[in-house]
Structure formats: structure tokens, C-alpha cells
């Protein structure tokens, strides 16, 4: 969408279906070029001056229609579409998709196996908490995980509410083999901010702080 106009994705925005399809085609070209198998299909915001409850039904119908179109197109490329709940308490009050419960219900209605949940623990904690049970409940739907400490949205070892070594071990026990995206704002520079990862590897008995060794 048009970020300067305040848009943040278009998939659930009524009347913007043509623009959504155009942007999706462009995203596909980028994904092919860099070999990325997953694309985040952003729902978008409740239109300004509109009551969320009044437009929820129409926005969900639009979202389902666009997600089915996207899933069928992505299937031709052997790609996965992702939907991410973003909290509307702090980050974006007008974003349409806010909880994993809402996302799971929509994914069930869409009914496409190549659409998955992009679960950001930062947003999930703010909206619902109960992270262990939520991870266990929605694990079959999860296609990507993102992390940031709550409430500052900084490194996992910064002061906050979440115990990330526990969550990493929980993900391993559940059988998660995908990437964990570090979607946080570093408090300093990036390399310094990755000290938490080296410390975590060492705590697991990994001596060499390299990605190939970590993968082993």
C-alpha cells in the first residue's frame, strides 16, 4: 500500500483488491529473485473515521478473498503466505489482525494449506499472554516465529517480561525447525546486540558462534 498515506498492507482493506494483487505480483518477483519461500500478506488498517466493529465483517470477507487469491498464486511458486497478528494496544491501534485466535479462525475459513501463521511473541504477549499454551495450541499453523522483549521491543536479554531461553527450548521440544526472526530495535549497534545469541549458544554447549555450527 501507500505508506505515506498511512496504509500498512492491503489484504483486508475493502476496495483495494486490485492494488493488493498488483503489490503481491511485485512481491513475488522480489521473492523469486532472492530465493525467499515466504511472503507476509499484511492485513492493513481499519479505515480512518470508521468503527472497527462496523466494518469487521466486510474486512474479514475481503481478507479471505484476497488470501485465497494469494495462496493459489503462491502455490504455483511453491511458496508460503504468512499472516501476522499485530497488537492494537501499543503498536498499531487500527491494524485489523490482532490476535492468533483471530488469525487461526480466518486461516480455517480460507482453507489453504500454504497459508500459515507468523507468530511474533512480542505482539502475542501484549494481546493475550499465555504464551506456552498459545505456542502449543497454534503450533500446527505456525510458519514463522518473531521475537522481541516486552515491553521495550529490544534484545531478548534486555529487561522485560519474557524468558527467551525457555521459549527457544519449548520451540525445539515442539519440533520447530524454521527461522526465528529478530524483529527488535537494538539498544546499541547490531553486532553488540547479538551478544545474547552467543551467550545462548554457549549455554547450550555450542562453542563456535557461527551459523553453520549453530545449525548442527
UniProtKB/TrEMBL annotation:
Gene3D superfamilies: Divalent-metal-dependent TIM barrel enzymes. One of its GO terms (molecular function) is hydroxypyruvate isomerase activity. SUPFAM superfamilies: Xylose isomerase-like. One of its GO terms (biological process) is glyoxylate metabolic process. Keywords: Isomerase. Residues 9-199 form the Xylose isomerase-like TIM barrel domain. The keyword Isomerase applies. It comes from the Eukaryota. It holds the Pfam family AP_endonuc_2. This is HYI isomerase. The gene is Hyi.
Amino acid at each position: 500500500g501507500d505508506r505515506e498515506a498511512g496504509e500498512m498492507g492491503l489484504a483486508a482493506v475493502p476496495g483495494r483488491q486490485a492494488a493488493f494483487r498488483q503489490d503481491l505480483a511485485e512481491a513475488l518477483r522480489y521473492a523469486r529473485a532472492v530465493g525467499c519461500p515466504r511472503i507476509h500478506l499484511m492485513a492493513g488498517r481499519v479505515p480512518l473515521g470508521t468503527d472497527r466493529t462496523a466494518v469487521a465483517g466486510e474486512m474479514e470477507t475481503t481478507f479471505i478473498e484476497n488470501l485465497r487469491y494469494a495462496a493459489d498464486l503462491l502455490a504455483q511458486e511453491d511458496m508460503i503466505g504468512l499472516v501476522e497478528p499485530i497488537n492494537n494496544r501499543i503498536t498499531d491501534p487500527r491494524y485489523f489482525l490482532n490476535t492468533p485466535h483471530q488469525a487461526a479462525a480466518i486461516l480455517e475459513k480460507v482453507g489453504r494449506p500454504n497459508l500459515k501463521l507468523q507468530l511474533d511473541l512480542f505482539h502475542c504477549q501484549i494481546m493475550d499472554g499465555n504464551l506456552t499454551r498459545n505456542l502449543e495450541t497454534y503450533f500446527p499453523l505456525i510458519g514463522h516465529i518473531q521475537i522481541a522483549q516486552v515491553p521495550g521491543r529490544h534484545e531478548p536479554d534486555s529487561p522485560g517480561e519474557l524468558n527467551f531461553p525457555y521459549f527457544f527450548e519449548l520451540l525445539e521440544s515442539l519440533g520447530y525447525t524454521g527461522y526465528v526472526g529478530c524483529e527488535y530495535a537494538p539498544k546499541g549497534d547490531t553486532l553488540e546486540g547479538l551478544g545474547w545469541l552467543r551467550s545462548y549458544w554457549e549455554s547450550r554447549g555450542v562453542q563456535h558462534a557461527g551459523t553453520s555450527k549453530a545449525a548442527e
